[in-house]
Write a structure and sequence with these properties.
This protein is α/β, with parallel strands linked by helices. It folds into 2 domains: 214 residues, Rossmann fold (3-Layer(aba) Sandwich), CATH 3.40.50.620; 77 residues, 2-Layer Sandwich (Uridine Diphospho-n-acetylenolpyruvylglucosamine Reductase, domain 3), CATH 3.30.465.60. 50% of the residues lie in helices and 14% in strands. The chain has 13 helices and 10 strands. The strands form 2 sheets. A 6-stranded mixed beta sheet has the order 3-2-1-4-6-5, sandwiched between helices. A 4-stranded antiparallel beta sheet has the order 7-10-9-8. Helix 2 crosses helix 7, helix 5 crosses helix 9 and helix 9 crosses helix 11. The longest helix is centred in the last third of the chain and has 30 residues. The protein starts with a helix and ends in a 7-residue tail after the last strand.
Length: 326
């Protein structure tokens, strides 16, 4: 019998997904098990069978082989193929592990022509990520990274259909349908900062400041996402207008008339699309500061293996002689 979570899950999917080849990233925890059940039932209704699963085994745990066996049994019950990658190299941080997982998943998707990747991130994950980003310093683009739908490349879309599900809702769902969950002991290792944040900081904030803090932060992120999308759209339009039709150059006379937020975004787009580079905020500041705009006709910067030249209202950029274009 369908539950309110079935209805919520259905709303998170675009009907055009029928045309896609799907890759579901799983772990065996309650988020993944919930995702597998909801997704298999939803795809069955849509008569979709172009789906496969992927699991990345870091081999951190002594019982990792049993964990893999448990996961294979779950996946085989819904009769979809699964690929398991075992990582033998040492990874010492959460960020390194996450980046390595995504790298493997995206490479697998490209090789197997999967144009949609599905993960089991939930609302609590989103809030935890927000707090982590705020604590270390971030941007509007950074805090809106964990969203329902994200375009990874021209051919691959990442979907998180549980992003508006709370962890308590997922727990209820798994109990309601007696789903086999693998309890991960590493979630209680307080040497991992995210676990300390999840099990200590957030409960403290709920108890002493606001019991609805996770919901409120989730709604705040939705508003931030809308603002960020608006800025992105306008930055792309401005980039198209300001780029040189033939040279790797930007019309800074046109760019400097716009709000500083758009100036920074257009410069980020310029360096990313042309050089696959992320330029640090200090360099962006030097380029956009009033001195560069008003009092100086020419200057040259050397950074990130790039030569950035400002001349007569245009920004010209090229690789330095010591670097190789890739």
């Amino acid at each position: 019998m369908p539950t309110f979570l079935h209805k919520k899950f259905k709303l998170n999917f675009n009907p055009s997904i029928k045309k896609n080849r799907l890759l579901i990233a799983v772990s065996g925890g309650q988020d993944s098990v919930c995702l597998i059940k909801l997704l298999s039932e939803h795809l069955k209704q849509l008569a979709i069978n172009n789906i496969e699963a992927i699991y990345i085994d870091h081999q951190w745990k002594k019982d990792s082989s049993k964990h893999v066996e448990h996961l294979i049994n779950i996946i085989h019950k819904i009769m979809i193929p699964i690929s398991i990658y075992q990582i033998k190299e040492n990874v010492f941080s959460e960020a390194e592990a996450r980046n390595l997982r995504y790298k493997i998943i995206i490479k697998h998707a490209i090789i197997n022509k999967c144009n949609t990747i599905i993960t089991g991130h939930n609302q609590n994950d989103q809030v935890e990520t927000l707090i982590q980003h705020l604590l270390r310093g971030t941007t509007l683009n950074g805090i809106t990274n964990l969203i329902l739908k994200k375009q990874i490349s021209n051919k691959i879309t990442l979907i998180r259909p549980l992003i508006n599900f709370t962890r308590s809702e997922i727990t209820w769902f798994c109990r309601q349908f007696c789903l086999p969950i693998w309890s991960d002991k590493t979630n209680y290792n307080y040497k991992v900062r995210r676990n300390r944040l999840r099990n200590e900081l957030i409960p403290y904030l709920e108890n002493y400041f606001n019991p609805n803090i996770q919901y409120n932060l989730h709604k705040f992120l939705e508003l931030c996402q809308e603002d960020n999308e608006y800025i992105k759209e306008n930055a792309i339009k401005l980039y198209i207008k300001s780029k040189h039709p033939f040279l790797t150059s930007l019309n800074f006379n046109l760019l400097k008339k716009q709000h500083i937020v758009l100036q920074k975004r257009v410069l980020q787009l310029y360096f990313h699309y042309n050089f696959n580079k992320i330029i640090n905020t200090e360099i962006i500041f030097i380029i956009t500061k009033p001195k560069a705009q008003k009092n100086i006709n020419k200057y040259t910067l050397l950074t990130n293996d790039l030569i950035i030249q400002y001349s007569n209202g245009w920004i010209y950029t090229n690789f330095s002689h010591n670097s190789q274009k890739y």
